[in-house]
Amino acid sequence: MYGVDYDALIVGGSFAGMAAAMPLLRGRRKVLLVDSGIPRNRFAEASHGLFGLDGRTPEAIVEIGLDGLRRYPTFSYFKGWVQSVEGKAGAFVAQAEEETILAKRIVFATGIVDQMPSIEGFAERWGRSVIHCPYCHGYEVADRATAVLYTGSHSLHQARLLKEWSEDLTLLANGHSLSEEEKESLHALGIAMRESRVVRLDGPGSELRAVEFEDGGHHPAEVLYAGLPQRPSSDLPDRLGCAYIEGPLGPLLQIDSLQQTTVPGVFAAGDIARPMQNATFAVADGTLAGVGAHRSLIFGT
Predict the structure, then answer these.
(1) Second-level CATH architecture of 5-113+229-299
(2) Topology of 117-225 in CATH?
(3) Angle value at C-alpha 198, between 196 and 201, nearest 5 degrees
(4) Mean local confidence (pLDDT), 89-110
């Protein structure tokens, strides 16, 4: 597998990475997909909204995807980490598990890391009763006592959006000061607010029953939404000089209309390169990145 001059190295083996492989394989190109096996969605019980696969576990969807990719004789797969990468379009050199990988193009589908707040019981419930996306998980928890953790101005937008899923809705300001205009807009929509800092989440196992505040108060809640700050899960794009833009929750790789980064021959797809994130977008972006990489192999752009 190693020492082969691959047409494309795809770093990241979840939805975006697998989708990027398909156009390249169907274009009869040699592809190596390297998968760390720790995707962002590993905390979720099920993945929703992906057409034809709604409600399957993330692990099951990955296996279905890999089964399809393995049909192609030019596909190679490795479970592990890429430690380093250097070079330029047509001559990239990567190191993985002390082996050398040569590739003409690279697709980064390395994803992001959600940065958890220092709230007791938060991390244990992440992906279960503490979630970030109503389109991904909101249907299953609709009409329950719902709270939104304020992590920035985007939380106000999210609170307004969530009225579609629950009328029992409270914004947890978490010690942040909101303007009178912001408070009035929430009140007009029937959204309650608690101002004190959140210190603990209570409930059996991964379930949520109540939020505990620094002032000693409690608020009943079964669901907590939190749009958390994000950071890239890998610094490999940085080593090649890829530029970033500032997204609403953290840095995102700068890409063009075919998912190419600011470094020729380097493409990116999935959560690392878009502000609105879910499984369907990851697959769409991955497909486009694969097409972009394939076209660049042909036309040199």
Answers:
(1) 3-Layer(bba) Sandwich (3.50)
(2) FAD/NAD(P)-binding domain (3.50.50)
(3) 145
(4) 95
Supply the pLDDT for residue 3. 59
Are the CB atoms for 90 and 265 separated by under 8 Å? yes
**Domains 5-113+229-299 and 117-225 agree in fold:** yes
Query: Where are the domains positioned within the chain?
Result: 5-113+229-299, 117-225
Q: What number of other Cβ atoms are within 10 A of residue 28's Cβ?
A: 11
Among 47, 81, 84, 83, which Cα is nearest to 62's? Answer: 47
Query: Contact at 8 Å (CB) between 201 and 207?
Result: no
Q: What is the DSSP letter of 178?
A: P
Angle between helices 279-299 and 15-26 (to 10 degrees): 30
**How many whole angstroms separate alpha carbon 162 and alpha carbon 19?**
30
In whole angstroms, how large is the CA radius of gyration of the chain?
21
For the stretch 150-163, pLDDT in tens is 999 999 999 999 99
21 near 69, Cβ under 8 Å? yes
- For 119-139, letters b (16+ CB in 10 Å) and e give bebbeebbbbbbbbbbbbbbe
Q: For residue 215, what pLDDT band results from cuts at 50, 70 and 90? A: very high
Per-residue pLDDT at 244 exceeds 90: yes
pLDDT(1) > 60: no
Chain center to CA of 102: 27
Stated pTM of the model: 0.94
User: Which amino acid is present at 21?
Assistant: A
Task: Find the mean pLDDT for residues 275-288.
Answer: 96
Q: Which residues contact 228 (CB under 8 A, 6 or more apart)?
A: 114, 115, 116, 117, 132, 151, 249
Residue 157's contacts (CB-CB under 8 Å, 6 or more residues apart) are: none
